[in-house]
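Lay summary. Proteins are chains of building blocks that fold into shapes, and those shapes determine what they do. In this project we predict the shape from the chain. Here is one chain we studied, written as its sequence of building blocks.
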Amino acid sequence: MAHSIDVHDIEEFEKLATSKDLEMAKAIVDAILKNLDTKKRFIHVLEVYIKSTYSVFDLTVDRNNFIDTLEKNLKIFEHHEMYEDCAEIVKAINTLKSVN
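And here is the predicted shape, written in a compact code that computers can read:
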């Protein structure tokens, strides 16, 4: 089951996405780390509930984008000084690069 977040409107979600939100980054990274060995092409990483419109949308990551997505989220973990998590992310990136 993917992590779920509630926001008032799409603008709030966009603000979270561009503001180095640690909760969102953790959800994305955790989902990828749990699926490093998956054969699935896409993995579900985040469910977003928009309160103002009573709508839900799901974010997925293409397996082909795991490395790029981890590298982008690594910067957020560095920004928040989550260095132990950074080491785990770097290890996963190196593992993925060695397989590709």
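What the prediction tells us: DSSP finds four helices and three strands in the chain.
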